[in-house]
Amino acid sequence: MSTKRMLGIAIFGVVFIAAVIGLMMLTSYFQLDDGAFELPETPTEDPPASAETHDGLSLVEVTPETVQEVIKTLYRPESYSRDIIVEIGGARVDVSVSVIYGVTALRNSMPGGMVRRVIVTADTLYIWYEGDDMPRISRPGVGRGADEWQMIVTYEDVLELAPGDIIEAGFTRHLGELCIYAVYRSPLLGYFRRYYISVIDGLVIGATEHDETGALVYQMTAGPTGGADPTKFILPDGASVIPQP
Questions:
Q1: Quick check: 55 and 200 in contact, CB under 8 A?
Q2: pTM for this model (two decimals)
Q3: Nearest to 49 by CA among 40, 57, 35, 60
Q4: Which fold has domain 45-112+144-231?
Q5: What sign does the CA torsion over 150, 156, 161, 166 have?
């Protein structure tokens, strides 16, 4: 990898970490008042009633008390691809995702025109920028998981909550798809997070995060899923990291 690319990676990492630390320090000065913030209304598109049948699925009632158990019944597909748009503080990152048997390949179009490639396996991380002749490799262990490299939230976050932290939950339609939604307040920052999880493929297809003033600070929107693209798993030297089923 060229010195210029290595320097770019280092600068990006320092800026990212500084931004996160700065955000955490800033929010620590606010006195959070449960009555000072009104949750945005849940956007719905003809929300289904609980316990109705949809595409052969019998829908049980989803409440803040039951949503975690319902989420545990969902499974992500073994192989798929989709495009994701992540917006943070006015900056937009477009992410192309392909997954094959637990290995995730990403193409991130970063602000400023840089394109970063990432492949995450069970024990190895490959990361490079388009135009590099070799990736940076980390092993053993990846540290950050594939979802973090996609800059997306996951429903595992909901499963780790104390049940009393979940404010609202139920069925709704988001982007035309039947979803389970859940709203909770982040224990760390006090921000309000809303997830939309597809009941068809178990993937988070949308998420928002609002600060204590109601301002939108994070938004994630996923496009429809398709078949995984094997070419996304090829390293700069031509080697493929597609796993065997």
A1: yes
A2: 0.73
A3: 60
A4: outer membrane lipoprotein receptor (LolB), chain A (2.50.20)
A5: positive
Query: What digits encode the pLDDT tens for the residues 36-55?
Result: 334 445 444 444 444 444 44
Where in the chain are the domains? Answer: 45-112+144-231
Cα gap 40→54, rounded to integer Å? 27
- The full DSSP string for 169-234 is EEEEEETTEEEEEEEEE-TTT--EEEEEEETTT--EEEEEEE-TTS-EEEEEEE---B---GGGGB
148-191 tens-digit pLDDT: 888 888 878 888 888 888 999 999 999 889 999 999 988 778 89
Q: Where are the alpha helices (DSSP H) in 110-193?
A: 146-150, 156-159
**Angstrom distance (rounded) from CA 34 to CA 119:** 41
**Lookup: tokens for 174:** 């988001």
